[in-house]
Amino acid sequence: MSMTRILFLVLGVLALGLFVRLWVGSGSYSDIQNLELKIDEQNAANDEQAERKRKLQNDVAALGKDDEAVEGHARSELGMIRKGETFYQVILKSDSAPSPELMPPSKEAPHVE
User: What is the domain partition of the chain in residue ranges?
Assistant: First the structure.
């Protein structure tokens, strides 16, 4: 065999090895596509968290400035009522049992003033 044939054979094997690595090895096309998919999923999750954070920051700012916002949270989340108000609970037939958070407040229930 001549020197040129040996050189071409070595270069051919080297090129074949590089192409195989490009197609199936680390950093291959499919590996890059999988990483890009993970990046897109993470960006979507980041966007959701940023929106949630923005809403919470607006809520905190409103609670710091507005007494009506505080009262609204006290009514909806803590079940508080004002003095003189009457609490009504509607139980639908489709509901098997009322949840404890929807139970009417006791006589010593906290009041929002």
Answer: 30-83
* pTM metric for this prediction: 0.48
75 by Cβ neighbours in 10 Å (0-12 / 13-18 / 19+) ranks as middle
- Nearest-Å Rg of the Cα atoms of the chain is 33
Q: How many C-beta atoms lie closer than 10 Å to residue 79's C-beta?
A: 15
Does the pLDDT of residue 98 top 70, yes or no?
Answer: no
Instruction: With H, G, I as helix, E, B as strand and everything else as coil, classify residue 100.
Output: helix
Whether the pLDDT of residue 99 is over 70: the answer is no
The stretches of 25-101 forming alpha helices (DSSP H) are 29-65, 67-78
For residue 98, report the phi and psi dihedrals to the nearest 5 degrees.
-70, 140
